[in-house]
Amino acid sequence: MTVKYTKDHEWVRVEGDVGTVGVSDFAQHQLGDVVFVELPDVGRTLEKGKEAAVVESVKAASDVFSPVSGEVIEVNHDLENEPARVNTGAQTEGWFFKLRLSNPSELDGLMDEAAYKAFVEESN
Amino acid sequence: MTEANQSIKTTPLHALHVELGARMVPFAGYDMPVQYPLGILKEHQHTREKAGLFDVSHMGQVRLTGEDPAAALETLVPGDIKGLARGRMRYTLFLNEQGGILDDLMVTNAGDHLFLVVNAACKEQDVAHLREKLAGKAEVELLDDLALLALQGPMAAAVMARFVPEAATMKFMSYLPATFNGVPVVLTRSGYTGEDGYEISCANADAEAIARALLAESEVEAIGLGARDSLRLEAGLCLYGHDIDTTTTPVEAALEWTLPKRRRAEGGFPGHEIIAKQLAEGTTRRRVGIQPDGRQPAREHTDIVDADGAKIGEITSGGFGPTAGAPVAMGYVDSAHAALDTPVSLLVRGKPLPARVAATPFVAQRYYRG
Protein backbone atom coordinates (compact mmCIF):
# COMPACT_ATOMS: atom_id res chain seq x y z
CA MET A 1 0.00 0.00 0.00
CA THR A 2 1.38 3.36 -1.10
CA VAL A 3 0.26 6.86 -0.12
CA LYS A 4 1.31 9.70 -2.39
CA TYR A 5 0.71 13.43 -2.19
CA THR A 6 0.31 16.35 -4.61
CA LYS A 7 1.51 19.93 -4.29
CA ASP A 8 -2.19 20.90 -4.06
CA HIS A 9 -2.41 18.85 -0.85
CA GLU A 10 -4.42 15.89 -2.10
CA TRP A 11 -3.43 12.35 -1.14
CA VAL A 12 -4.02 9.07 -2.95
CA ARG A 13 -3.72 5.68 -1.28
CA VAL A 14 -3.18 2.91 -3.80
CA GLU A 15 -4.27 -0.71 -3.30
CA GLY A 16 -3.95 -2.78 -6.47
CA ASP A 17 -5.31 -0.63 -9.29
CA VAL A 18 -7.66 1.34 -7.00
CA GLY A 19 -6.73 4.73 -5.59
CA THR A 20 -8.55 6.36 -2.66
CA VAL A 21 -8.34 10.15 -2.75
CA GLY A 22 -8.73 12.85 -0.12
CA VAL A 23 -7.17 16.07 1.12
CA SER A 24 -4.27 16.14 3.55
CA ASP A 25 -4.47 16.99 7.22
CA PHE A 26 -2.51 20.15 6.43
CA ALA A 27 -5.16 21.08 3.82
CA GLN A 28 -8.10 20.54 6.16
CA HIS A 29 -6.40 22.70 8.74
CA GLN A 30 -5.91 25.46 6.18
CA LEU A 31 -9.52 25.16 4.96
CA GLY A 32 -11.05 25.36 8.42
CA ASP A 33 -14.44 23.91 9.25
CA VAL A 34 -15.78 22.04 6.22
CA VAL A 35 -19.53 22.53 5.71
CA PHE A 36 -20.09 20.97 2.29
CA VAL A 37 -18.36 18.61 -0.12
CA GLU A 38 -19.33 18.20 -3.78
CA LEU A 39 -18.25 14.77 -5.00
CA PRO A 40 -17.83 13.52 -8.58
CA ASP A 41 -20.40 11.14 -10.03
CA VAL A 42 -19.53 7.46 -10.02
CA GLY A 43 -18.48 6.49 -13.55
CA ARG A 44 -16.95 9.86 -14.34
CA THR A 45 -13.46 9.82 -15.84
CA LEU A 46 -11.06 12.10 -14.04
CA GLU A 47 -7.84 13.49 -15.40
CA LYS A 48 -4.74 13.99 -13.31
CA GLY A 49 -4.53 17.57 -12.06
CA LYS A 50 -8.07 18.46 -13.16
CA GLU A 51 -11.04 19.43 -10.99
CA ALA A 52 -12.58 16.43 -9.29
CA ALA A 53 -14.47 17.72 -6.25
CA VAL A 54 -15.20 20.90 -4.33
CA VAL A 55 -14.79 21.42 -0.61
CA GLU A 56 -16.52 24.36 1.07
CA SER A 57 -15.62 25.83 4.43
CA VAL A 58 -17.65 28.51 6.21
CA LYS A 59 -15.50 31.05 4.43
CA ALA A 60 -14.85 29.82 0.91
CA ALA A 61 -15.08 27.12 -1.76
CA SER A 62 -11.91 25.30 -2.88
CA ASP A 63 -11.32 22.91 -5.76
CA VAL A 64 -9.96 19.44 -5.17
CA PHE A 65 -7.92 18.06 -8.08
CA SER A 66 -7.50 14.42 -8.91
CA PRO A 67 -3.93 13.28 -8.13
CA VAL A 68 -4.13 10.65 -10.88
CA SER A 69 -6.28 9.78 -13.89
CA GLY A 70 -8.98 7.13 -13.74
CA GLU A 71 -12.66 6.29 -13.47
CA VAL A 72 -14.58 7.04 -10.27
CA ILE A 73 -15.85 3.76 -8.80
CA GLU A 74 -17.07 4.90 -5.38
CA VAL A 75 -17.65 8.15 -3.45
CA ASN A 76 -17.83 8.77 0.29
CA HIS A 77 -21.54 9.48 0.78
CA ASP A 78 -20.96 10.01 4.52
CA LEU A 79 -19.48 13.40 3.65
CA GLU A 80 -22.85 14.57 2.35
CA ASN A 81 -24.35 14.47 5.83
CA GLU A 82 -21.17 14.88 7.85
CA PRO A 83 -18.77 17.08 5.90
CA ALA A 84 -16.89 17.73 9.17
CA ARG A 85 -15.35 14.25 8.72
CA VAL A 86 -12.88 16.00 6.42
CA ASN A 87 -11.66 17.90 9.50
CA THR A 88 -11.75 15.06 11.99
CA GLY A 89 -10.23 12.45 9.71
CA ALA A 90 -8.80 14.00 6.57
CA GLN A 91 -6.69 10.95 5.81
CA THR A 92 -9.09 8.31 7.14
CA GLU A 93 -12.91 8.63 7.34
CA GLY A 94 -12.75 11.90 5.38
CA TRP A 95 -11.76 10.33 2.06
CA PHE A 96 -13.54 11.75 -1.01
CA PHE A 97 -13.65 9.12 -3.75
CA LYS A 98 -12.06 5.96 -5.13
CA LEU A 99 -10.96 5.58 -8.73
CA ARG A 100 -9.60 2.84 -10.94
CA LEU A 101 -6.21 4.08 -12.11
CA SER A 102 -5.88 4.35 -15.88
CA ASN A 103 -2.19 5.25 -15.80
CA PRO A 104 -0.43 4.02 -12.65
CA SER A 105 2.88 5.49 -13.83
CA GLU A 106 1.46 8.91 -12.92
CA LEU A 107 2.12 7.96 -9.28
CA ASP A 108 5.85 8.29 -9.92
CA GLY A 109 5.50 12.06 -10.25
CA LEU A 110 3.88 12.46 -6.82
CA MET A 111 5.52 12.96 -3.43
CA ASP A 112 5.84 10.26 -0.81
CA GLU A 113 5.06 10.96 2.86
CA ALA A 114 8.55 12.24 3.70
CA ALA A 115 8.79 14.46 0.62
CA TYR A 116 5.31 15.89 1.27
CA LYS A 117 6.18 16.63 4.88
CA ALA A 118 9.27 18.50 3.75
CA PHE A 119 7.21 20.35 1.11
CA VAL A 120 4.67 21.51 3.72
CA GLU A 121 7.36 22.65 6.12
CA GLU A 122 9.09 24.54 3.35
CA SER A 123 5.91 26.27 2.15
CA ASN A 124 5.08 27.24 5.72
CA MET B 1 7.49 41.22 1.37
CA THR B 2 5.56 43.01 -1.37
CA GLU B 3 5.02 46.74 -1.42
CA ALA B 4 1.43 46.21 -0.34
CA ASN B 5 2.60 44.35 2.72
CA GLN B 6 5.00 47.10 3.65
CA SER B 7 2.24 49.70 3.66
CA ILE B 8 -0.35 47.59 5.47
CA LYS B 9 -1.65 49.11 8.69
CA THR B 10 -2.13 47.44 12.06
CA THR B 11 -4.49 48.05 14.98
CA PRO B 12 -3.32 48.48 18.59
CA LEU B 13 -4.32 44.83 19.19
CA HIS B 14 -2.12 43.39 16.44
CA ALA B 15 0.47 41.86 18.77
CA LEU B 16 -2.30 40.33 20.88
CA HIS B 17 -3.91 38.72 17.81
CA VAL B 18 -0.57 37.16 16.86
CA GLU B 19 0.00 36.01 20.46
CA LEU B 20 -3.46 34.37 20.45
CA GLY B 21 -2.52 32.43 17.30
CA ALA B 22 -4.76 34.29 14.88
CA ARG B 23 -4.51 33.76 11.14
CA MET B 24 -3.93 37.27 9.86
CA VAL B 25 -5.20 38.53 6.49
CA PRO B 26 -5.22 41.91 4.78
CA PHE B 27 -8.61 43.59 5.10
CA ALA B 28 -9.38 47.20 4.11
CA GLY B 29 -5.69 48.04 4.31
CA TYR B 30 -5.19 46.45 7.75
CA ASP B 31 -3.59 43.20 8.83
CA MET B 32 -6.58 41.67 10.64
CA PRO B 33 -7.42 38.34 12.34
CA VAL B 34 -9.74 36.27 10.12
CA GLN B 35 -9.86 33.50 12.72
CA TYR B 36 -8.20 32.25 15.89
CA PRO B 37 -7.28 28.63 16.65
CA LEU B 38 -10.91 27.97 17.71
CA GLY B 39 -11.97 28.31 14.04
CA ILE B 40 -14.77 30.25 12.35
CA LEU B 41 -17.52 27.73 13.08
CA LYS B 42 -16.85 27.51 16.83
CA GLU B 43 -16.15 31.23 17.09
CA HIS B 44 -19.53 31.89 15.50
CA GLN B 45 -21.32 29.46 17.82
CA HIS B 46 -19.49 30.80 20.86
CA THR B 47 -20.69 34.33 20.09
CA ARG B 48 -24.31 33.13 19.76
CA GLU B 49 -24.09 31.12 22.99
CA LYS B 50 -21.79 33.16 25.25
CA ALA B 51 -19.75 36.24 24.33
CA GLY B 52 -17.21 37.11 21.65
CA LEU B 53 -14.65 39.90 21.56
CA PHE B 54 -13.93 41.52 18.19
CA ASP B 55 -11.25 44.02 17.20
CA VAL B 56 -12.93 46.56 14.92
CA SER B 57 -10.32 49.26 15.38
CA HIS B 58 -9.88 49.45 11.61
CA MET B 59 -13.25 51.18 11.37
CA GLY B 60 -13.35 54.96 11.23
CA GLN B 61 -14.42 56.93 14.27
CA VAL B 62 -15.30 60.52 13.43
CA ARG B 63 -16.26 63.52 15.53
CA LEU B 64 -18.52 66.16 14.02
CA THR B 65 -18.77 69.52 15.81
CA GLY B 66 -20.17 72.93 14.91
CA GLU B 67 -23.16 75.13 15.50
CA ASP B 68 -25.67 72.50 14.36
CA PRO B 69 -23.87 69.36 13.21
CA ALA B 70 -27.16 67.41 13.03
CA ALA B 71 -28.63 69.83 10.50
CA ALA B 72 -25.36 69.77 8.57
CA LEU B 73 -25.19 65.94 8.50
CA GLU B 74 -28.82 65.72 7.35
CA THR B 75 -27.73 67.30 4.04
CA LEU B 76 -25.70 64.11 3.35
CA VAL B 77 -27.82 61.31 4.86
CA PRO B 78 -31.56 60.46 4.77
CA GLY B 79 -31.80 59.61 8.49
CA ASP B 80 -33.49 61.67 11.20
CA ILE B 81 -30.42 63.14 12.87
CA LYS B 82 -32.06 66.29 14.25
CA GLY B 83 -34.55 64.12 16.09
CA LEU B 84 -31.87 61.92 17.63
CA ALA B 85 -32.06 62.35 21.42
CA ARG B 86 -28.88 62.89 23.38
CA GLY B 87 -27.21 59.56 24.13
CA ARG B 88 -29.03 57.75 21.31
CA MET B 89 -27.66 56.41 18.05
CA ARG B 90 -29.00 55.28 14.70
CA TYR B 91 -27.97 53.64 11.45
CA THR B 92 -27.94 55.78 8.33
CA LEU B 93 -26.36 56.08 4.87
CA PHE B 94 -24.20 58.54 3.00
CA LEU B 95 -25.93 58.95 -0.39
CA ASN B 96 -24.78 60.30 -3.75
CA GLU B 97 -26.89 62.47 -6.09
CA GLN B 98 -28.31 59.32 -7.73
CA GLY B 99 -29.45 57.97 -4.37
CA GLY B 100 -26.61 55.42 -4.44
CA ILE B 101 -25.00 54.45 -1.15
CA LEU B 102 -21.49 55.87 -0.53
CA ASP B 103 -21.20 54.17 2.87
CA ASP B 104 -23.33 53.05 5.80
CA LEU B 105 -22.64 54.39 9.26
CA MET B 106 -23.73 54.74 12.86
CA VAL B 107 -24.45 58.23 14.19
CA THR B 108 -24.59 58.98 17.91
CA ASN B 109 -25.78 62.20 19.52
CA ALA B 110 -22.99 62.65 22.08
CA GLY B 111 -24.31 65.96 23.37
CA ASP B 112 -21.70 68.48 22.32
CA HIS B 113 -20.87 66.57 19.11
CA LEU B 114 -21.99 63.82 16.79
CA PHE B 115 -19.98 60.60 16.94
CA LEU B 116 -19.85 58.64 13.68
CA VAL B 117 -18.57 55.12 13.04
CA VAL B 118 -17.90 54.40 9.36
CA ASN B 119 -16.45 51.49 7.37
CA ALA B 120 -12.70 51.02 7.33
CA ALA B 121 -12.45 50.88 3.54
CA CYS B 122 -14.48 54.10 3.19
CA LYS B 123 -13.17 56.19 6.06
CA GLU B 124 -10.73 58.38 4.14
CA GLN B 125 -13.27 59.15 1.43
CA ASP B 126 -16.04 59.68 4.01
CA VAL B 127 -13.94 62.24 5.87
CA ALA B 128 -13.04 63.99 2.61
CA HIS B 129 -16.74 63.99 1.63
CA LEU B 130 -17.78 65.41 5.00
CA ARG B 131 -15.07 68.10 4.89
CA GLU B 132 -15.96 69.15 1.37
CA LYS B 133 -19.74 69.17 1.73
CA LEU B 134 -19.90 70.54 5.26
CA ALA B 135 -17.18 73.19 4.89
CA GLY B 136 -18.12 76.18 7.02
CA LYS B 137 -20.92 74.22 8.69
CA ALA B 138 -19.14 71.57 10.74
CA GLU B 139 -15.67 70.53 11.83
CA VAL B 140 -14.71 66.95 10.95
CA GLU B 141 -12.12 65.04 12.93
CA LEU B 142 -11.01 61.47 12.19
CA LEU B 143 -10.24 60.03 15.62
CA ASP B 144 -7.14 57.99 14.72
CA ASP B 145 -6.11 57.91 18.38
CA LEU B 146 -9.06 55.67 19.25
CA ALA B 147 -9.47 51.90 19.07
CA LEU B 148 -12.83 50.10 18.80
CA LEU B 149 -13.69 46.72 20.31
CA ALA B 150 -17.00 44.86 20.19
CA LEU B 151 -18.26 42.49 22.87
CA GLN B 152 -21.20 40.52 21.48
CA GLY B 153 -23.43 37.70 22.63
CA PRO B 154 -26.06 36.79 25.21
CA MET B 155 -23.51 36.94 28.06
CA ALA B 156 -21.98 40.26 26.96
CA ALA B 157 -24.13 42.26 29.36
CA ALA B 158 -23.21 40.13 32.38
CA VAL B 159 -19.52 40.36 31.51
CA MET B 160 -19.59 44.12 30.89
CA ALA B 161 -21.45 44.75 34.16
CA ARG B 162 -18.42 43.42 36.10
CA PHE B 163 -16.39 46.35 34.73
CA VAL B 164 -19.06 48.97 34.06
CA PRO B 165 -22.11 48.29 36.27
CA GLU B 166 -24.21 51.01 34.63
CA ALA B 167 -23.79 49.26 31.25
CA ALA B 168 -26.37 46.65 32.28
CA THR B 169 -29.33 49.00 31.90
CA MET B 170 -28.23 50.71 28.69
CA LYS B 171 -30.89 50.41 26.01
CA PHE B 172 -30.18 49.03 22.53
CA MET B 173 -28.72 51.83 20.36
CA SER B 174 -27.70 54.04 23.26
CA TYR B 175 -24.39 55.63 24.23
CA LEU B 176 -22.62 55.97 27.57
CA PRO B 177 -19.26 57.51 28.46
CA ALA B 178 -17.88 55.40 31.32
CA THR B 179 -14.77 54.17 33.11
CA PHE B 180 -13.40 50.67 32.51
CA ASN B 181 -10.71 49.52 34.97
CA GLY B 182 -9.87 53.16 35.60
CA VAL B 183 -9.59 54.27 31.98
CA PRO B 184 -12.15 56.31 30.01
CA VAL B 185 -14.25 54.48 27.43
CA VAL B 186 -17.35 55.24 25.42
CA LEU B 187 -19.82 52.37 25.23
CA THR B 188 -22.64 51.92 22.77
CA ARG B 189 -25.11 49.08 23.04
CA SER B 190 -24.84 48.04 19.45
CA GLY B 191 -23.05 45.63 17.17
CA TYR B 192 -23.01 43.67 13.94
CA THR B 193 -23.94 40.14 14.98
CA GLY B 194 -27.67 40.28 15.71
CA GLU B 195 -26.86 39.63 19.38
CA ASP B 196 -27.00 41.89 22.41
CA GLY B 197 -23.68 43.56 23.08
CA TYR B 198 -21.51 46.62 23.13
CA GLU B 199 -18.97 48.50 21.10
CA ILE B 200 -16.19 49.98 23.21
CA SER B 201 -14.33 53.05 22.01
CA CYS B 202 -11.12 53.71 23.91
CA ALA B 203 -7.68 55.24 23.55
CA ASN B 204 -5.31 53.17 21.39
CA ALA B 205 -2.98 52.92 24.38
CA ASP B 206 -5.72 51.35 26.56
CA ALA B 207 -7.10 48.89 24.02
CA GLU B 208 -4.87 45.93 24.83
CA ALA B 209 -5.47 46.10 28.58
CA ILE B 210 -9.24 46.27 28.02
CA ALA B 211 -9.13 43.37 25.56
CA ARG B 212 -7.05 41.26 27.95
CA ALA B 213 -9.40 42.04 30.85
CA LEU B 214 -12.42 40.94 28.81
CA LEU B 215 -10.69 37.83 27.42
CA ALA B 216 -9.80 36.81 30.99
CA GLU B 217 -13.54 36.38 31.69
CA SER B 218 -14.53 32.74 31.28
CA GLU B 219 -17.42 33.50 28.89
CA VAL B 220 -15.33 35.48 26.41
CA GLU B 221 -13.38 34.25 23.37
CA ALA B 222 -11.57 36.28 20.72
CA ILE B 223 -13.52 36.21 17.45
CA GLY B 224 -12.15 36.97 13.98
CA LEU B 225 -13.53 38.60 10.85
CA GLY B 226 -14.62 35.25 9.42
CA ALA B 227 -17.21 34.69 12.13
CA ARG B 228 -18.09 38.38 12.13
CA ASP B 229 -19.17 37.91 8.50
CA SER B 230 -21.22 34.74 9.09
CA LEU B 231 -22.85 36.30 12.18
CA ARG B 232 -23.92 39.47 10.36
CA LEU B 233 -25.15 37.49 7.35
CA GLU B 234 -27.39 35.31 9.53
CA ALA B 235 -28.62 38.53 11.19
CA GLY B 236 -29.55 39.88 7.74
CA LEU B 237 -27.21 42.86 8.03
CA CYS B 238 -25.70 44.40 4.90
CA LEU B 239 -21.95 44.47 4.23
CA TYR B 240 -20.90 47.64 2.44
CA GLY B 241 -19.19 47.03 -0.91
CA HIS B 242 -21.05 43.73 -1.28
CA ASP B 243 -24.77 44.05 -0.46
CA ILE B 244 -24.90 47.82 -0.86
CA ASP B 245 -22.72 50.22 -2.84
CA THR B 246 -22.90 53.33 -5.03
CA THR B 247 -25.07 51.49 -7.59
CA THR B 248 -27.79 50.50 -5.09
CA THR B 249 -30.32 52.84 -3.51
CA PRO B 250 -31.84 52.37 -0.04
CA VAL B 251 -35.14 51.39 -1.69
CA GLU B 252 -33.55 48.72 -3.89
CA ALA B 253 -31.60 47.54 -0.83
CA ALA B 254 -34.82 47.08 1.19
CA LEU B 255 -33.59 49.68 3.67
CA GLU B 256 -36.75 51.81 3.58
CA TRP B 257 -36.71 51.76 7.39
CA THR B 258 -33.74 54.15 7.21
CA LEU B 259 -35.99 56.72 5.45
CA PRO B 260 -38.20 58.33 8.13
CA LYS B 261 -41.42 60.13 7.27
CA ARG B 262 -40.09 63.66 7.85
CA ARG B 263 -37.08 63.18 5.60
CA ARG B 264 -39.18 61.53 2.88
CA ALA B 265 -41.49 64.57 2.91
CA GLU B 266 -38.90 67.32 3.33
CA GLY B 267 -36.04 65.87 1.31
CA GLY B 268 -32.84 67.87 1.60
CA PHE B 269 -30.53 64.87 1.13
CA PRO B 270 -28.70 63.69 -2.00
CA GLY B 271 -30.82 61.65 -4.39
CA HIS B 272 -34.12 62.58 -2.70
CA GLU B 273 -36.04 62.93 -5.98
CA ILE B 274 -34.93 59.52 -7.24
CA ILE B 275 -35.65 57.89 -3.90
CA ALA B 276 -39.09 59.54 -3.60
CA LYS B 277 -39.95 58.24 -7.08
CA GLN B 278 -38.77 54.75 -6.17
CA LEU B 279 -40.79 54.80 -2.95
CA ALA B 280 -43.89 55.75 -4.92
CA GLU B 281 -43.42 53.53 -7.96
CA GLY B 282 -41.20 50.71 -6.75
CA THR B 283 -37.89 49.57 -8.21
CA THR B 284 -36.97 47.05 -10.88
CA ARG B 285 -34.87 45.01 -8.45
CA ARG B 286 -34.79 44.39 -4.73
CA ARG B 287 -32.46 42.95 -2.10
CA VAL B 288 -33.87 39.76 -0.58
CA GLY B 289 -32.81 36.90 1.61
CA ILE B 290 -32.08 33.66 -0.27
CA GLN B 291 -32.34 30.23 1.32
CA PRO B 292 -30.69 27.49 -0.77
CA ASP B 293 -32.20 24.00 -0.40
CA GLY B 294 -29.88 21.37 0.99
CA ARG B 295 -26.42 22.05 2.38
CA GLN B 296 -24.50 23.56 -0.52
CA PRO B 297 -23.61 27.24 -0.03
CA ALA B 298 -23.95 29.78 -2.85
CA ARG B 299 -21.30 32.49 -2.72
CA GLU B 300 -21.13 36.14 -3.74
CA HIS B 301 -21.56 36.72 -7.54
CA THR B 302 -23.55 33.51 -8.01
CA ASP B 303 -26.18 34.08 -10.72
CA ILE B 304 -29.83 33.75 -9.70
CA VAL B 305 -32.03 32.36 -12.50
CA ASP B 306 -35.75 31.68 -12.96
CA ALA B 307 -37.41 28.40 -13.89
CA ASP B 308 -36.53 29.00 -17.58
CA GLY B 309 -32.87 29.61 -16.78
CA ALA B 310 -33.05 33.37 -17.44
CA LYS B 311 -30.88 35.49 -15.15
CA ILE B 312 -32.98 37.42 -12.63
CA GLY B 313 -30.30 38.53 -10.18
CA GLU B 314 -27.12 37.83 -8.30
CA ILE B 315 -26.04 36.76 -4.81
CA THR B 316 -24.16 39.55 -2.98
CA SER B 317 -23.35 37.66 0.24
CA GLY B 318 -23.57 33.95 0.75
CA GLY B 319 -22.13 31.21 2.86
CA PHE B 320 -22.94 28.66 5.49
CA GLY B 321 -24.84 29.84 8.57
CA PRO B 322 -23.56 27.82 11.52
CA THR B 323 -26.53 28.72 13.75
CA ALA B 324 -29.06 28.37 10.94
CA GLY B 325 -27.40 24.99 10.28
CA ALA B 326 -27.83 25.65 6.59
CA PRO B 327 -26.52 27.80 3.77
CA VAL B 328 -27.79 31.39 3.85
CA ALA B 329 -27.45 34.22 1.35
CA MET B 330 -28.74 37.57 0.24
CA GLY B 331 -28.80 39.21 -3.13
CA TYR B 332 -30.74 41.25 -5.64
CA VAL B 333 -33.54 39.85 -7.79
CA ASP B 334 -35.90 41.40 -10.34
CA SER B 335 -38.84 42.74 -8.34
CA ALA B 336 -41.23 40.27 -10.00
CA HIS B 337 -39.35 37.50 -8.15
CA ALA B 338 -38.89 39.27 -4.81
CA ALA B 339 -41.94 37.91 -2.96
CA LEU B 340 -41.26 35.63 0.01
CA ASP B 341 -41.01 31.92 -0.85
CA THR B 342 -40.59 32.56 -4.60
CA PRO B 343 -38.66 29.57 -5.95
CA VAL B 344 -35.44 30.48 -7.76
CA SER B 345 -32.32 28.63 -8.90
CA LEU B 346 -28.72 29.48 -8.14
CA LEU B 347 -26.11 28.63 -10.76
CA VAL B 348 -23.33 27.08 -8.68
CA ARG B 349 -20.46 25.84 -10.85
CA GLY B 350 -22.84 25.65 -13.79
CA LYS B 351 -25.48 23.57 -12.05
CA PRO B 352 -28.86 24.98 -10.93
CA LEU B 353 -29.25 24.76 -7.16
CA PRO B 354 -32.86 25.11 -5.98
CA ALA B 355 -33.50 27.94 -3.51
CA ARG B 356 -36.26 30.29 -2.44
CA VAL B 357 -36.64 33.91 -1.46
CA ALA B 358 -36.56 33.99 2.34
CA ALA B 359 -37.18 36.43 5.16
CA THR B 360 -34.20 37.91 6.97
CA PRO B 361 -32.82 37.68 9.57
CA PHE B 362 -32.14 33.95 9.26
CA VAL B 363 -31.50 33.85 13.00
CA ALA B 364 -33.69 35.98 15.30
CA GLN B 365 -31.99 39.17 16.50
CA ARG B 366 -31.69 39.38 20.27
CA TYR B 367 -31.12 43.06 21.01
CA TYR B 368 -31.65 44.44 24.52
CA ARG B 369 -34.82 46.51 24.53
CA GLY B 370 -34.90 47.08 28.30
Number of helices of chain A: 4
The CATH class of the largest domain in chain B? Alpha Beta
Question: Unreliable stretches of chain B, pLDDT < 50, 5 or more residues?
Answer: none
SSE ordering of chain A? EEEHEEEEEHHEH
Number of helices of chain B: 10
Largest sheet strand order of chain A:
1-2-3-9-8-5
Helical/strand content category of chain B: alpha+beta
Largest sheet of chain A: 6 strands, antiparallel
Order of helices and strands of chain B: HHEEHEEHEEEHEEHEEEHEHHHEEEEEE
Give me the oligomer status.
heterodimer
Gyration radius from CA atoms of chain B, angstroms: 21 Å
The parts of chain A where pLDDT drops under 50 for at least 5 residues are none
What's the CATH first level of chain A?
Mainly Beta
**Strand percent estimate of chain A:** 35-45%
Overall CATH architecture of the largest domain in chain B:
2-Layer Sandwich
Q: How is the main sheet of chain B built?
A: 6 strands, mixed
- Chains forming the largest contact: A-B, 14 and 20 residues
Strand content of chain B: 25-35%
Keywords (chain B): Aminotransferase, Methyltransferase, Transferase, Transit peptide
EC number (chain B): 2.1.2.10
Protein name (chain B): aminomethyltransferase
Catalytic activity (chain B): N(6)-[(R)-S(8)-aminomethyldihydrolipoyl]-L-lysyl-[protein] + (6S)-5,6,7,8-tetrahydrofolate = N(6)-[(R)-dihydrolipoyl]-L-lysyl-[protein] + (6R)-5,10-methylene-5,6,7,8-tetrahydrofolate + NH4(+)
Describe it for me?
The complex is a heterodimer of chains A (124) and B (370). By secondary structure, chain A is an alpha+beta fold. In chain A, 21% of the residues lie in helices and 37% in strands. In chain A, the strands form 2 sheets. A 6-stranded antiparallel beta sheet of chain A has the order 1-2-3-9-8-5. Chain A has a 3-stranded antiparallel beta sheet with strand order 4-6-7. Chain B has 3 domains: 3-56 and 145-234, Probable tRNA modification gtpase trme, domain 1 (Gyrase A, domain 2, 2-Layer Sandwich); 60-142, Alpha-Beta Plaits, CATH 3.30.70; 256-358, Aminomethyltransferase beta-barrel domains (Elongation Factor Tu (Ef-tu), domain 3). In chain B, the strands form 4 sheets. Chain B has a 6-stranded mixed beta sheet with strand order 10-11-12-9-3-13, with helices on both faces. A 6-stranded antiparallel barrel of chain B has the order 14-17-16-15-18-19. In chain B, α3 crosses α8. Chain B is globular.
